[in-house]
C-alpha cells in the first residue's frame, strides 16, 4: 500500500507488510511519546479532528499524536456544534474543511459516512469509527498491543487464540480486529456473544476464507479456558432502538478476577477497547482485575498514541524525517520509562 496521501478507512486496505510498516514506525515513536525527545517534523501542519459521536480517548489520542509530531489540532465535537445541523451535506463539509487542514480524522454514527466524506476531501482522511462498521486505527493499536504483550511471553502473532466477548454485532472494533487477525497464520478466534449479537456473517465468512479457525459460543467460562487473549467489549447501547433493548444484553458476560483465576490459562492477556461500562448492571470487565498484571487495557491506550503517530507520519510522508527535527526535552519528565507499568 502506498501510504502517502492515502485515506485510512478500512482494514480491508491492509496487507501484512503494511501492518509491519505501521508497527515499525510506531516503535520509533516511543521516545517521543515518552517525552524523552521532542520532534517538530509536522510543524505548521494542521489536523482537522471531527468527532460527530461520543469519544474521549480516540479524539484526544489522535490530537495528542499529532501534537507530539509538532502539528496543530483544530477540533469539532458533536453535531450540535457543526453546520450539519443546518442541513449541510457531509460532502460540502469535507470540501470546506479539507481547505483548512492537512489531514482529517473523523468519527460519525453512519456506516460508510467517513468514506463518503473522504471521497469529497482534498486531504487524507482517517476513520475514527463509522457507526457499527469499522474502527481501523483501534484494530491496529489492538494488534500492536497483542504483538508487544505476546513478544514479552516469547510468542508471535501467528498461532494465537483470541476470545472476543460481548456485542460483536455492533462493535466496530471487533469487526476491524477480526479482519486484521485474518492476515496472520494459524489464528483461532472464539466469538462469545448473545445469540442476537453475533459477529456479522460476512466478517465470519471472510475470516474463515482467510484460514482463521472461528467458533461461535454463547457462554463465557468454558470458551475462555484455552485462549491467549480475552478481548471484552461493551454493549453498544447507542446502536439499539431503546435503552430497554440494550438492557436485555447488559451484564451477560462479566469477567472478574474469580472467573479469570478459575477458568483462564495463567497469564491470559485481558483487553478491551474501552470505555468499559462500569455501571453495576453491566460491568463487563470488573475493576477487581485492575491489579492483574495481564490487564493490558491502559497499555492499549498508551500504544494508541504510537500507532496514530505512525499513521500520520506515513500518510504525510515524514516517517523517515522524524529524528531530523528532534531535540531533547527541557522540562521535568515524569514518564521516564515504559508506557503504563
Ligand atoms: C470504541 C468505539 O468507539 O468503537 N471505543 C474506542 O474508540 N476506544 C468501543 C466502544 O465505544 O465501546
List the helices and strands and how they pair.
Elements: H1 16-28, H2 30-33, E1 37-39, E2 46-51, H3 57-68, E3 72-77, H4 90-97, E4 103-108, H5 113-119, E5 125-130, H6 136-152, E6 161-165, H7 172-181, E7 188-192, H8 201-209, E8 213-217, E9 229-232, H9 243-247, H10 257-263, E10 269-271, H11 297-315, E11 326-328
Parallel strand pairs: 2-3, 2-4, 4-5, 6-7, 6-9, 7-8, 9-10
Antiparallel strand pairs: 1-11
Bound molecules: N-carbamoyl-L-aspartate.
N-carbamoyl-L-aspartate binds next to helix 3 and helix 7.
Description:
The chain is α/β, with parallel strands linked by helices and 341 residues long. It folds into 2 domains: 11-135 and 301-339, Rossmann fold (3-Layer(aba) Sandwich), CATH 3.40.50.1370; 136-297, Rossmann fold. It has 11 helices and 11 strands. The chain has helices spanning 16-28, 30-33, 57-68, 90-97, 113-119, 136-152, 172-181, 201-209, 243-247, 257-263, 297-315, and strands at 37-39, 46-51, 72-77, 103-108, 125-130, 161-165, 188-192, 213-217, 229-232, 269-271, 326-328. The strands form 3 sheets. It has a 5-stranded parallel beta sheet with strand order 8-7-6-9-10, covered by helices on one side. Strands 3-2-4-5 form a 4-stranded parallel beta sheet, with helices on both faces. Helix 7 (172-181) links the parallel strand 6 (161-165) and strand 7. The longest helix is centred in the C-terminal third of the chain and has 19 residues, at 297-315. 46% of the residues are buried. N-carbamoyl-L-aspartate (NCD) binds at residues 57-58, 129, 135, 138, 172-173, 234, 236, 273-274.
Amino acid at each position: 500500500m502506498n501510504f502517502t496521501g492515502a485515506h485510512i478507512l478500512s482494514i480491508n486496505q491492509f496487507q501484512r507488510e503494511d501492518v509491519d510498516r505501521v508497527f515499525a514506525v510506531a516503535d520509533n515513536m516511543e521516545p517521543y511519546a515518552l517525552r524523552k525527545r521532542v520532534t517538530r517534523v509536522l510543524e505548521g501542519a494542521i489536523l482537522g479532528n471531527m468527532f460527530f459521536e461520543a469519544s474521549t480517548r480516540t479524539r484526544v489520542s489522535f490530537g495528542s499524536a499529532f501534537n507530539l509530531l509538532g502539528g496543530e489540532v483544530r477540533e469539532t465535537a458533536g453535531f450540535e456544534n457543526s453546520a450539519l445541523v443546518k442541513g449541510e451535506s457531509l460532502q460540502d463539509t469535507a470540501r470546506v474543511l479539507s481547505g483548512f487542514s492537512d489531514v482529517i480524522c473523523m468519527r460519525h454514527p453512519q456506516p460508510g459516512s467517513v468514506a463518503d466524506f473522504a471521497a469529497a476531501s482534498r486531504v487524507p482522511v482517517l476513520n475514527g469509527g463509522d457507526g457499527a462498521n469499522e474502527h481501523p486505527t483501534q484494530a491496529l493499536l489492538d494488534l500492536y498491543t497483542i504483538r508487544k504483550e505476546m513478544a514479552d511471553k516469547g510468542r508471535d502473532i501467528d498461532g494465537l487464540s483470541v476470545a472476543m466477548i460481548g456485542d460483536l454485532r455492533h462493535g466496530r472494533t471487533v469487526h476491524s480486529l477480526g479482519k486484521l487477525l485474518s492476515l496472520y497464520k494459524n489464528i483461532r478466534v472464539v466469538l462469545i456473544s448473545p445469540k442476537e449479537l453475533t459477529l456479522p456473517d460476512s466478517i465470519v465468512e471472510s475470516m474463515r476464507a482467510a484460514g482463521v479457525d472461528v467458533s461461535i459460543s454463547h457462554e463465557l467460562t468454558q470458551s475462555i479456558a484455552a485462549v491467549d487473549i480475552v478481548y471484552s467489549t461493551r454493549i453498544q447501547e447507542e446502536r439499539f432502538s431503546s435503552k430497554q433493548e440494550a438492557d436485555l444484553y447488559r451484564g451477560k458476560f462479566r469477567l472478574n478476577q474469580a472467573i479469570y483465576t478459575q477458568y483462564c490459562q495463567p497469564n491470559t492477556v485481558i483487553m478491551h477497547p474501552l470505555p468499559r461500562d462500569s455501571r453495576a448492571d453491566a460491568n463487563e470487565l470488573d475493576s477487581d482485575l485492575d491489579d492483574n498484571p495481564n490487564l493490558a487495557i491502559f497499555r492499549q491506550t498508551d500504544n494508541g498514541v504510537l500507532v496514530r503517530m505512525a499513521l500520520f507520519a506515513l500518510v504525510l510522508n515524514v516517517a523517515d524525517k522524524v529524528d531530523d527535527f528532534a531535540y531533547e526535552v527541557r522540562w521535568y519528565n515524569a514518564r521516564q520509562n515504559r508506557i503504563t507499568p
